[in-house]
Predict the structure.
Amino acid sequence: MSDILSSKDLKYLLIDSLSLYTEDSRYISGKNPYCFLINKKTFYIFIHNVHDSGKGRTNTDECRIQVSKSKNFLAAQASGLPVLFLGYSTADNTFTAWDPLEQTKRINKKKVISLYSRFSTLKRAAENGLAVYIDDDKQVIVSFKPEYLGLYLENFQGIHKSNEENLLNLIKTSDLTAPTEEEVGEKVNLGKVQFVVTHRQFRRDPDFRVAVYEAYSERCAMCGIQLELVEAAHIVPHSEAGGKDELVNGLCLCSLHHKAYDKGLIYVDAEYKILINEPKIEYLTKVKKDGGFPKFSKLQFDKLELPRSRAAYPSKEYIKIGNKLRGIS
Ligand SMILES: [Zn+2]
């Protein structure tokens, strides 16, 4: 089936989805469960494609994921960090999350567990942004659109104690909450539960921009375009401790290449060669978001167009770190 995403695809899906919520998000390490940092908190995310329950099922609305106690899973659990259980449906473009407290108790007793929900709940989530299914054990299972994945991570404990009405209000609040430079954003009380919504945005340093523009003569280092369409891009993102506003951590890129670089669609190696990140293209093809790729792939040079001054060349060390943070391996 073409709509089943591989482990690597799911990693890119998580990176993309979390960046919709906050700039303070990044992939750290791990392979299913994946370790992510969101608004200064660290989580493991275990994720699988949601599928039907298989042979012999009586309820055609029933869907599930299966979790097995793999080596990676046990290592994540041993870290003491929260391990969250997610399903993803490409057909509905929604995540489904099960209560990690309940599921951890179950998996501690068994090698493989099945986590169930309903296809109709996934469909409602695709329409309304979020939907809840309550199972026979009164577990609150929540499905939501990708832009709310960060909101879920920030509030997972409260979310599994809440209900659909309050959670629909929570996503509405998230939609209306303005970005902040603070580490903790807006506090919201819904029912008896307190939630927090943090759309973090980092301050841009105007001196950094001026220095980058000057070094590159306001020309995109990847395609050569000027036309007042360029931006000062950070190699190590400013969400990082090492993401400094120094010239050697900068690249002058047009808006298109800046976005493509930040999203890990395109990257630069230690020889300043410009390369397409093939696994990301494979992922985008599977989720049917690869339109225009042949055109895009012809836009850039083979190599970065570097500044005249050697001292302004991008740091190779930063390039290495930046690639890793964008999920390029
Ligand atoms: Zn460009």
Residues 206-325 form one domain.
